[in-house]
Amino acid sequence: MIRQFDLQLFTEEKTESATPKKMRDAREKGQVVQSKELSTAVAFLSVFLAMGAMSDYLINGMVGYFTMTMNLIPDVGQMFESEDYKLYMADMLMTILKYALPLLGVALVVGVLMSYIQVGFLFTTETLMPKLEKINPMKGFKNIFSMRSLVELVKSIAKASTLLYIAISYVLDHLPELLITFEIEPIQTMGIMWDIILGVVMRCALFLFIVAIFDYAYKRWKNSKDLMMTKQEIKDEYKQSEGDPKLKAKIKEKQRAFAMSRMMQSVPEADVVITNPTHFAIAIKYDSDKSDAPVVTAKGQDLVAMNIKRIATENAVPIVENKPLAQTLFRTVEIGQAIPPDLYEAVAEVLAYVYKLNRA
């Protein structure tokens, strides 16, 4: 029977959605939904859209630079024999940076923005911590030849083949335009080449964007499935976060017992105990130095009332029967509180009776 119970425990299915606490813990460990393909596709598309918007600036600038370079070709040998080549190399580097930095800035901003949209702000060092299982050669060998690796390989081949088809088919459709580039000016050639390259890139980026959307949706579904919990895991998490209900019940029981003990210790110091006579018992003490009105120091019902009356009898505390007053005090005044003004007269009569008995 024990083996059957253990088998049922270990084979319990994960049928419950992840709790907010488990999702927070997974996020802190770096287990988040993020598609690199989506960030790459959007950044790729954004860069070439920026290049399209800056096409006149880039084409004119590059043509001007290449024209200047071509004019320097006859003097290249002489240039490298002198110190001018350093200036030439520095000028070439600055020109490349001048046209490349705006595009790199667009790629950086879009990449950060896409990561933030997918993940939000997250800083964790959990993913950087070294793990021994990651350097296990046997486990690495299994991962290389696993079904998951095979699926990823097939996906990569299919994606590369589709991109190659998109590029080749677009170039073939514009082959007549490419053939006339040998007969026109360089500036016109660069314009035609740019239009063809931009067309290829836009179509490839659009394809990657569509693939990335499906990839992100799949990873989101896979992450939700991986984070699913069993009913026992949810119970264990509740115990850890809220505390064991049994332990909390024991603590409350001890607190009640401690409060009851303190209450019973105050009964011998009371001036009078007012009873129902069987169901309620309320101990009252009046100290004019501490309070302007009598204070309820103990009260109880049924068995607690019997204990209060027993302790009062043992310590010679007067017990007065007054059913309406006992019921009202029990329901309206808490332990440690002074009696309300509307009960002053009734309680005063009881105290006067008690004081008269004490003097007698």
TrEMBL record:
Transmembrane segments: 38-59, 99-129, 150-172, 192-218
Gene3D superfamilies found in the cross-reference section: 6.10.250.2080, secretion proteins EscU
Family matches, as SUPFAM superfamilies: EscU C-terminal domain-like
Keyword Cell membrane set for record: yes
Principal place of residence: membrane
Keyword Transport in record: yes
Highest taxon above the source species: Bacteria
Xref: InterPro entries: FlhB (IPR006136), T3SS_substrate_exporter (IPR006135), T3SS_substrate_exporter_C (IPR029025)
Localization (cell): Cell membrane
Bilayer disposition of the protein: Multi-pass membrane protein
Entry keywords, A to Z: Bacterial flagellum biogenesis, Bacterial flagellum protein export, Cell membrane, Cell projection, Cilium, Flagellum, Membrane, Protein transport, Transmembrane, Transmembrane helix, Transport
Family membership: Belongs to the type III secretion exporter family.
Role according to the record: Required for formation of the rod structure in the basal body of the flagellar apparatus. Together with FliI and FliH, may constitute the export apparatus of flagellin.
Designated name of the protein: Flagellar biosynthetic protein FlhB
Species in which this protein is naturally found: Fusibacter paucivorans
